[in-house]
């Protein structure tokens, strides 16, 4: 029975309506059942499949900011290269996953097919390099060294290379202007890791998987500013990786430019002179070992004395940072990091530490005055000093009688400092102190040793001040090993281990005596000593060394200058500082460095210096040369290079000659002076945001050669001064022992 009135309705119509009602109810039942099946019975499974439809990001890398020298010359910038890339999404749509296309591409690029296929595989825990660590939806670069002919082949035959693109892109370039390498200062880039991405995801500057990040040097220190912000295009893709729509797009923002205090011309001269000094040292005989000096590593720092800004910083051995661009090869990586490489990635100016030898005596002199000894007092510079049966000698047993601390600095007299350090050790209580003053150790900390200088480079090392706390901690860490290997009547090393086992935590007389002349367990870095000698020059202010001078936005409208900062004052009164300054000038005019500064215009540009040669057990001596004028402090060191004034002296003199335009006869040619005074201003920023830069010479070193074609290669008398740890008894006339070759370049004097 239905609710349809019977009036005017036939049986056929009534039957049709009943059938329709049944069909509608059946369809509704079927639909309901299907919905129950999909949402309830199979809901989890389909929800999982649907989750594969999501948004993927394709990144357009930002153009990295340039690193410029103080005049605006690019030390690191970007160049346009033809980059061939492959779309992994397009390749996976092919039956063979794109193997045929990649094989054909390898033929065009002159690469092996396997090499190309390895480039596009994704990195994971089981996949070794090379592999792609970025997003699988990002075009994967195959090479950034494609020729125009190769790129044209790929683009003209696009139907043969589906998923392959050949486009010009910005790639990092380390320019080496005027042959100034600057490798350890600049650093290098490499792809970001998963760990770094995760660590930075909640910070103000998160990483994208396609990012290249700074691994060392300025590239790492100023990575955030240089990197800019990558552009991101978001695509909707299904669970098979097929693009089904574009969501949104953000344009890339280029990185800021970094202006540094480095002068590329001075940098080139510093690198050249350091390398030449090491080459010369390797030709000289070490009379202590009977073989030539190894001169296996070295560093030099040129610093503005009044600001702490670094004008040049060289480390040797060095490397080409361009080796990292586009991914470093296995062969290059082994060459830079292998056991036989001598670790060129290490910046020995900030990460190389060694005993300082006699350049440390400025610290000991200040400590002695603080302890109550008169700077102008009379102290016996005897030929030797004995303690407990052990004899500590002066150079070649030289004896100069009673002298003041100023003269002790000039002559680098060890025995004066032996006596002072021993006297203070006894006053402090000797082996069993109660409340020691430790003036000599406190002074080192006050000079900034034993801690970082604060330079704007990563991974700076602290050096070491071997005070009582260090002695105790070192003994606790090594006591078991010493006690196990030490023998009372064994070899020299076994005897030392035996003594250290028994009382290695105690400050012995010999420890303090050796420490007073920068020997023993004391370690410093070149940047620390440059900071100290710059402070002596400027009146006592210890500045944080800086290389970055300003960060300039891409459009040039925002300039954030990096101002010099101080981290302390030297623990010296103005009176004592003036006397020390005079004594260090005496080192350059009548003391151990005088033979290196013959003809220097002392009346116009007062020169101050301190030589040092540190003894290292099992190795040849380390050469140190610390100097300053009113404008600059220069410190050079050469590992296993010989004496201070002999190995490093000529190179440092040549750097000063280049800075001020000084010829061998003392004449000053301002036209040849590279940097007679520090640059105080920033380079000019143009209206479009670019930074003006001067024309760069092919090689500033060659520009300093004589203009009349008459060169004098290197036969002035002298070379490595007396082979002793303190460079004693030097005079204006060079001595006839030690390394005798020098590299002073004769230059034509001009009025």
Task: Give an overview of the whole structure.
It is a single chain. The chain is α+β, with helices and mostly antiparallel strands and 751 residues long. It contains 23 helices and 25 strands. The strands form eight sheets. Strands 2, 3, 4, 5, 10, 20 and 21 form a seven-stranded mixed sheet that branches. It has a five-stranded antiparallel sheet with strand order 14-13-25-24-23, with helices on both faces. A three-stranded antiparallel sheet has the order 1-8-9, with no helix packed on it. Helix 13 packs across helix 16. The longest helix has 31 residues. The C terminus is likely disordered.
As a whole number of angstroms, the C-alpha radius of gyration is 35 Å
Q: What's the rounded overall pLDDT mean? A: 86
The largest sheet is: 7 strands, mixed
Poorly predicted ranges: 709-751
How do the strands and helices of this protein lay out in sequence?
Elements: H1 11-41, H2 43-50, E1 54-60, E2 67-68, E3 74-86, H3 88-92, H4 99-109, H5 113-120, E4 140-143, H6 148-156, E5 164-174, H7 183-186, E6 189-191, H8 194-200, E7 212-214, H9 217-221, H10 223-227, E8 231-237, E9 243-250, E10 257-260, H11 264-281, E11 285-286, E12 291-292, E13 297-304, E14 310-316, H12 330-337, H13 361-370, E15 379-381, E16 384-387, E17 390-393, E18 401-403, H14 405-411, H15 414-427, H16 439-446, H17 468-485, H18 492-503, H19 509-516, H20 526-538, E19 541-543, E20 548-552, E21 559-561, E22 566-569, H21 574-589, E23 608-614, E24 622-628, E25 632-639, H22 644-660, H23 700-703
Parallel strand pairs: 2-10
Antiparallel strand pairs: 1-8, 2-3, 3-4, 3-5, 6-7, 8-9, 10-20, 11-12, 13-14, 13-25, 15-18, 16-17, 19-22, 20-21, 23-24, 24-25
Helix pairs in contact: 4-5, 11-22, 13-16, 14-21, 15-19, 17-18
């Amino acid at each position: 029975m239905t609710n349809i009135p019977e009036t005017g309705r036939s049986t056929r119509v009534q039957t049709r309506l009943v059938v329709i009602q049944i069909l509608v109810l059946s369809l509704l039942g079927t639909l309901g059942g299907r919905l129950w099946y999909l949402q309830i019975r199979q809901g989890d499974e389909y929800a999982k499949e649907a989750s594969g439809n999501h948004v993927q990001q394709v990144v357009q890398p930002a153009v990295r900011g340039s690193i410029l020298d103080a005049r605006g010359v690019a030390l690191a910038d970007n160049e346009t290269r033809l980059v061939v890339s492959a779309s992994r999404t397009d390749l996976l749509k092919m039956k063979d996953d794109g193997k045929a296309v990649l094989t054909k591409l390898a033929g065009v690029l002159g690469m092996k097919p396997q090499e190309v296929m390895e480039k596009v595989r994704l990195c994971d825990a089981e996949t070794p390099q090379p592999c792609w660590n970025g997003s699988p939806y990002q075009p994967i670069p195959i090479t950034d060294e494609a020729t125009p002919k190769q790129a044209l082949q790929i683009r003209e035959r696009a139907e043969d290379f589906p998923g392959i693109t050949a486009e010009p892109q910005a790639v990092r370039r380390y320019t080496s202007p005027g042959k100034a390498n600057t490798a350890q200062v600049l650093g290098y880039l490499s792809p970001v890791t998963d760990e770094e991405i995760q660590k930075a995801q909640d910070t103000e500057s998160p990483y994208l998987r396609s990012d290249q990040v700074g691994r060392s040097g300025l590239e790492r220190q100023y990575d955030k500013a240089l990197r800019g912000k990558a552009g991101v295009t978001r695509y909707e893709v299904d669970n098979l990786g097929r693009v089904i729509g574009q969501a949104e797009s953000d344009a890339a923002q280029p990185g800021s430019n970094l202006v540094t205090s480095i002068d590329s011309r001075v940098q080139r001269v510093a690198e050249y002179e350091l390398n030449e000094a090491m080459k010369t040292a390797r030709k000289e005989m070490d009379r202590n070992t009977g073989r030539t000096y190894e001169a296996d590593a070295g560093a030099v720092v040129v610093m503005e004395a009044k600001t702490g800004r670094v004008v040049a910083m060289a480390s040797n051995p060095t490397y080409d940072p361009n080796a990292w661009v586009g991914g470093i090869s296995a062969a290059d990586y082994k060459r830079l990091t292998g056991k036989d490489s001598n670790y060129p990635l290490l910046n020995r100016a900030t990460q190389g530490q060694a005993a300082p030898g006699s350049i440390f005596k400025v610290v000991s002199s200040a400590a002695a005055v603080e302890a109550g000894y008169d700077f102008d007092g009379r102290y016996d510079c005897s030929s030797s000093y004995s303690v407990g049966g052990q004899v500590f000698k002066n150079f070649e047993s030289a004896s100069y009688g009673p002298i003041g601390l100023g003269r002790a600095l000039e002559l680098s007299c060890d025995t004066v400092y032996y006596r002072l350090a021993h006297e203070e050790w006894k006053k402090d209580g000797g082996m069993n102190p109660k409340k020691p003053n430790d003036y000599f150790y406190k002074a080192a900390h006050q000079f900034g040793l034993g801690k970082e200088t604060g330079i704007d480079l990563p991974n700076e090392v602290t050096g070491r001040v071997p005070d009582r706390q260090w002695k105790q901690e070192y003994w606790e860490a090594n006591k078991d090993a010493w006690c196990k290997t030490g023998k009372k009547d064994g070899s020299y090393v076994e005897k030392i281990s035996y003594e250290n086992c028994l009382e290695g935590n105690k400050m012995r007389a010999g420890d303090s005596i050796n420490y007073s002349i920068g020997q023993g367990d004391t370690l410093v870095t070149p940047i620390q000593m440059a900071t100290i000698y710059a402070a002596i020059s400027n009146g006592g202010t210890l500045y944080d060394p800086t290389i970055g001078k300003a960060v300039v936005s891409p459009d040039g409208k925002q300039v954030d200058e990096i101002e010099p900062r101080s981290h302390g004052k030297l623990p010296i009164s103005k009176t004592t500082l003036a006397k020390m300054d005079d004594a260090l000038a005496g080192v350059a005019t009548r003391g151990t460095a005088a033979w290196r500064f013959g003809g220097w215009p002392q009346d116009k540009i007062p020169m101050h210096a301190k030589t040092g040669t540190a003894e290292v057990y099992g190795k040849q001596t380390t050469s140190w040369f610390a100097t300053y004028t009113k404008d600059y402090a220069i410190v050079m060191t050469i590992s296993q290079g010989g004496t201070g004034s002999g190995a490093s002296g000529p190179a440092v003199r040549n750097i000063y000659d280049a800075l001020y335009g000084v010829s061998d006869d003392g004449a000053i040619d301002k036209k040849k002076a590279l940097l007679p005074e520090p640059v105080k201003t920033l380079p000019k920023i143009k209206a479009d945001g670019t930074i003006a830069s001067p024309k760069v010479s092919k090689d500033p070193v060659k520009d300093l050669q004589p203009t009349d074609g008459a060169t004098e290669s290197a036969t002035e008398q002298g070379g490595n001064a007396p082979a002793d740890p303190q460079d004693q008894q030097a005079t204006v006339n060079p001595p006839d022992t030690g390394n005798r070759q020098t590299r002073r370049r004769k230059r034509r004097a001009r009025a």
